[in-house]
Amino acid sequence: MNTDKPRGSKHPAIINLSALLFMLLSAPPLKAQQKAGIRGIDHVGINVPNLKQAVSFFSEVLGFTAITQIGPITLDERWKTSNRLTAATKSVTIKMVRAETGANIELFEYTPKAGKSIQPGGDNPAATHIAFYVDDINAATNYLKSKSVKVLGEPFLTPVGDTKGESWVYFETPWGSKMEFVSYPEGKEYEKKNPQVLLWSPKDVQPKKQSINNMSGTEILALLEQHLALWNEHDEMKRNKIEKAIYSPDIEMVDRHFIATGYQQVDSFVKDLQQKNPGAKFTHSRPVDTHHNIARLFWQFGPTDQPAMVKGMDLFVMEEGKVTKLYVFVEEQ
C-alpha cells in the first residue's frame, strides 16, 4: 500500500493555520455602532412654537403619552454661543412624549420666540419629517381629516423600486411641521432579494397584550381609599409613596380644563389644590360603583364641618392593579 501523501497536499496543521489566518484577515472590522455602544434611537427632538399646543396635538390626535418635563431652564451665554442660539433667547422648556412603539419625541419650546416661525420648504436642506407606521393608510388618513388635520394630498402607493408596496401620505401639524404616515403590510420589494440586513420596522413589533386580570371588588375599594388618602395627604413624601403604590408611572388624569400625565404633574395639581383650600378634605358622597377594572368614586370636597364646596365623580381605569386613567367630573354649581 502506498502511504505517501498525494503530490501537492499539505500538512493538516498547515491547512488549519492557513484557514484561521484567512478568517482573521477577512473578518469585518468592529462596527462603529458597537464601538460607540449604540443600541438604537432613543428620541427625536423638534422645536415647537407652543409647547401646550404641541403636547395637545401629540396626545389628543396621535395618541402619544406625555411623560417628562424639565424647565423652563435659563440658558447661559456660553451654551447659547456653542449651540448657535440667538442672544435674545432666555430659556427652554423640554417635554418628552412617548409612542407605544419606536423612538420617543422630545419637544423644545424656547422663550422668548426667536427666528422664523415658517417651516422650511420640502426641498430645503434644513427640512425634516417624522414618519409613523400605520396598519391601514386610508383609514389613518381619514382619521386625520376627521380631526381637521391638514393632509398634503392622498396616500401614494410606490409602484417600483426597493420600496414598492409602500404607501405614504404627508400631513402638517398645527404649527406647520411636516409629518408622515407610512404603511407596507405586505412588506417592501427589496425584502424579496433576501438581504442580509432588513430595515427595522414597528410593523414587526408585537403589540402589548392587554391585561385580562380583573381586580376584585375588595381590591378596588382598597385602592380607591388610598386614592382619597393621597388627595388628603399634605406630606409630600407620604403622598409620593402612595402615588407609586396605586398609580401607573404614566397615569393620565383628564379634567375638562387640562390633562395631567405622570406622578409629577398629578402631584403638582394636588399640592396646588391643598394650598388654595386649607382645611378642605375629600370624602365619599355616595357608595362606589365597580365594574371589572373600572370604578366610579363619588366625592365631595370642603371643610368637614361645613357643607361641601364642590361635588363630583372620578372614573378610574385600572390595569395590573394600578390606575392608568383618571377622568374627573365636577358637578356644576
From TrEMBL:
Residues 1-32 form the signal peptide. The keyword Cell membrane does not apply. It comes from the Bacteria. Residues 40-184 form the VOC domain. SUPFAM superfamilies: Glyoxalase/Bleomycin resistance protein/Dihydroxybiphenyl dioxygenase, NTF2-like. This is VOC family protein. Keywords: Metal-binding, Signal. It comes from Terrimonas ginsenosidimutans. Pfam families: Glyoxalase.
